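tool_call: predict_structure(chain=1)
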Amino acid sequence: MDTQSHVVDLNGLTEDLRRGVEYASRAGLLRGAAVLDAISAAEKTIKNDQRPDLHAVTLALNEVAQVIAPITVADLRFRRDPTSLDNQKRAKILQLSLTIFSLAVMVLIGLFMNGLRIEQGSIAELNEINRVQPELKLTALRKMAEKDEPTSQRSPLFDEYHQKIEELRQINNGMLLTFKRACDAAHDSLFPFGNYFIKAHDTKNAGEQGCQQSSAAGTEEPSIPMKSDPSTPPNINAFEITSDLRPSGDTAATDASANSQYISGASQMTSFSSATDAQLSSAEVPNLCDQDQDGGMQLPKEAAGFPKWMKTVLADTLSDFCFQLKVLSPDGRGTLLNVSMAQLQAIPEIKDKIALRTTWFLPFFYGLLGAAIFMIRDVASIRTPAMEGFPILMRVSLGGVAGIVIGWFTVAPSNLETVSSISVPFALAFVTGYGIDVLFTMLDRVNRALGAHPKAVGA
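tool_result:
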C-alpha cells in the first residue's frame, strides 16, 4: 500500500508495534489489561481495513513503549534487542570481559591502597619520631651522666638513668626501622611493579643511595666514603657519621675511621677546605672523644681560633656525639643525631605521592570499578538494550573521569596519615562511576542555569 501521500507512515508504525509486542511477550511484560486491549484493537484494524486505523495503532504503540521501557522502539529497530540470539552471545563475551576488567581494576586498587598505607604509615612514624625529640632526650641523659653522676651510688637516680638509656636504645632501634621504611616509601615507584620496568641507574639517584647507606647500619660491612682526591673538599658532616660506623672486632680501626671523618666534617663546617686541612692524616688527628689538658672535650685544630663561647657550644655538641658513640651504642649503630633530620626530609616527597594517589589515581580507578560493575549488571539484564563494545568502553572511561571530577567537589582531607580520613572521596568516586547519569544531569542543569539569559526590562 502506498503511504507516500500520508503524513504518518502507518507501515512503519505497524512494524514498530510488532517489534515492541514481540519483545514484551518474550520478556513477560504484557500483563496489563489496557495494553492487551490496545493491541487487540490495533490487530483488528490491521486485519479488517485496507489502511490501519492510525488512532488504534498509535495508542497501542504508546502503551507498548511504556511497558518495555527503558528499552525504546529505536533500540528494537536498530537490532539492540537483548533477547535475540546474536545479542545474547555477544552479552556473554562482554560479561566475561567486564568481569576480568573489574578484577584487574580491583587488583590495581589493592596495590595502590597498599602503597598508600605504607606511605601514610611512614609519615605517621616520622612525625612520631619528630614529636619524641630524641636529640633532647640524648642531651638530657648525657648531662645527667656528666653532672649528677648516677652510677656513683645505688640511688633512685641510678634506676632512672638506666631507664632512660633503655628508652633511648629503643628509640634508636625504632629510628633505624622507620628510616628504612621512609626511604622505601619515598623512592618506591608510584605505579605497581614500576621498579621492575625502570633501569637501575635511573632510580639510584644520590638521595636514594644515601638513604640506603644510612638505613643499612649494622647490617653490612664497613662502608665509610673517603675522598681519594685530597684537593677535593670533603662533603661529609661531622655529626652524620654514626650510621656509617659498623661493628667490627677492631675498635681502634673504627676510632681511626671516625677520627678521619670527624676532622673532614669539621673542616667543611668551619669552611677550612684548603689542601693542607684536607690532607691531614689519621696519625695527625687526635683520638675521637679524648679529653684535653683541662679535662674537657678535645676539639679539632681548626677550632683553635674560635671564640670561647663557640668552643663551648662545639664541645657540648661533641659531648652528645661521643656519649652516643661510646656509651649508648659502642658498636657504632647510633642514629639519634644524624638520621632524624634525614628522615624528615622524606616527608614532602611521600606527601606528594599520597596526593597523587588520593586526588587522581585512586578516584579514577574507583570510578572505573563503579562503571564496570554497572555495565556488568546492565549487559546481563534483558530489560536494557544490547550494547556494542565501543559504547561500553566509552561509558567505563566516563566513569573513571567522573570519579576524578566528583573529587573536585569534595573537601580535601587535612589528615593524610590514616585511610579512614580519605575513604569518603573514594566511596563517592565509586558511586559516581556507577550512577554516572546523575553527575552529568547535575552538570547539565548547571550549564543551563549559566546559559540562561535574563529577560530585558520592559520586554
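agent: The mean pLDDT is 75. Proceeding to next step.
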